[in-house]
Amino acid sequence: MRVSKKVGGRRFPSKPRYSDDTLLDGLRDYARRVGGRRFTYDEFDRWEMAPFCASTVLMRFGSWRAALGMVGIESGQPKEYPAAELLEEFERVWTDAGKRPTTRTLHRLSRISVNAFRNKWGTVKRLGDLVARYRRGEISRAAVLKAAGKAKRRKEVPLGVRWRVIERDGYRCVACGRSPATERGVELHVDHVRAVARGGGNEIANLRTLCSACNMGRGTGGTGVRARAA
Ligand SMILES: [Zn+2]
After folding, report:
1. Residue ranges of the domains in the chain?
2. Which of 108, 146, 181, 197 places its Cα 20 to 30 Å from the Cα of 116?
3. Under the phi-then-psi rule, with left for phi > 0, alpha for psi from -120 to 50, and beta for the rest, what region is 60?
4. Separation of 126 CA from ligand 1 center, angstroms?
């Protein structure tokens, strides 16, 4: 247990046993073992070689999600969903929201990560266009499903590359400067500067670290804006 002393209403560790880097390295180690997928708090604690408890990570970074975000593991489900299931979820969100879902709507209401939709249809807009046409009776449901997978598949940014990007950006959002290390609930994503839909690739120069809020809020002049926080 870390010894804390209270200073001005906030607790500051007087002797942190593990540095932030040590904790993040431990998470990276485990991520490597499991192929870079998301893993749970309990699963980490079951790892016999774990150099520290998951609770240490939680106390330091505020949430498990935030800690995983710092090592480039996003909270999205790595699982691949069948197109029919994604379409049903998209329609459910449409009904719940009472309007055609945007990327932001999906982030808020979908039980399935936005990337799962993008992986099948390329962009949320493209899927929205197709579903809108289906709802107007212009195309069949089968046609919407058939269009899945035809889009240029978004190639996942490899885990190692994501780590390098987040490290290069100093573990903070390059747009607003927020970091999971200093603020609860901040989750870091690796974002394409030039969107995949516009031909952007997964090279490090085309990637940047954004918090989930900035990542969702982009869309206006999203290309090439490098509002890097000093
Ligand atoms: Zn941000």
Report:
1. 7-70, 83-147, 159-217
2. 181
3. alpha
4. 26
